[in-house]
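User: Hey, quick favor. My workstation is busy. Could you predict this chain's structure for me?
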Amino acid sequence: MKSYVPEKWRLAIAICLIAAPALAFYVILYKTAVNLPLLDDYQSILDVANSIVKAHGPLSRLGVVVTSQHNGYKQITNNLVVWACYRFTGHVRMLPLIAIGDAFALLIFLPVALMAKLPTRDRASRLLLLVPVACFIFQLQYASALNFASCSIQEISVVAFSLLSIYFLAKDARNILVISSIFAFLAVLSSPNGFLLAPVGAFLLAGRRQWKQLMIWTAIFCVLLGLYFFRYSGVPITAVDKTAAHSVNPIYALAFVGASAARYVSIAPALVLGVLLSGIVVLAAIKRYDLRNPAVFYSMVFILINAVAVSGLRSGQGVAQSLASRYRIYSNLMLALSYLFLLEQWILRWKGIAARRLAITAAIMLSATFCLLSDLAGARFLDAKKIALQQSYRMQWLGLPVDAADEAEIKRNPALARQLQDGVFNPNLPTLRESVRLGVYQPPMQP
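Assistant: No problem, here it is.
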């Protein structure tokens, strides 16, 4: 059926619809960002910056970047960003680091959008079909990983680099392995989760019988493993629970995959969605979707492998830990990828134009509603976190009185209480005092 709406207006509407969730996402983040360190920022940012400043010469500073650890993890990308920030500005400033971390959400959306294999060449139609993808990715389900410099630079960047690596590896073009390996390298530098790309790439290359490329891929990850364990000091006792048994827990893994459907204590909805999404991956395998769109299929596999790995590491802390907001980007991403599979495999193949339009309209409306509800909850969380940081800073650093209304707002937010249970600003931390003494970090007059 031919549309009577002029092409330029259809394109303008499509651009507005796809840009709206991203605009709302970043406006909320901009308004709730605070120029103060939070929890892991003290060790992952300030302590690393202190060590870089005290090191003598470029090689020594590079050694700090490559060998510094936090809770047993090497976060080399984080360390490089901190070093660059100090090198070019002379200080460690939290707001630019926060902005860099939050910007990685754009690098998640980009490869997912490029992965879509849509049969239409009409730009307006292609953008309209991608609106649900934007709504699933640009939303605040994973709010606790945002406006949190060290967390977003680690957690969001490793997902972005991993997706880019899978996207290029799936293209099966000459020399494309080099580009894919570069992004795999960046993923591993961001977080050890990047090593989970190794089996994903191995499955993809083995399925194509590209044995030479598989050997190169394996060798690359062996080199990365050697780099990661260079001067690796292990996991400190304080970072693990010695009393908890760590083993793969299917319930934990399924709840992790479906976490976007749950509140922070509601395991059942997460389990239901996790089973449905995992079933979609199984269905995609049966339909040999790996041949039709390997980038989307193996991205889904990457998320499942992450779910299993995380369950093995954290299931001892209780199944409720699977619902942590900071990891919900994986569940959101699985929703976006599952939508692309259903769209390509069935919806766009329906003969009835009215049925196709109805299904696509329903997907846009449902994903937009989901995005709106997530943004409302996430905005409340981020706003309460901003109040908590500012209040703690004013009281403990500037010696100003506490606003009772602000304190009541913080207590009404249980998710925030869990994230900030170790305190939001401690002026007596040796790391903070050392940063101020060295001139690495200067607490702001107004947070």
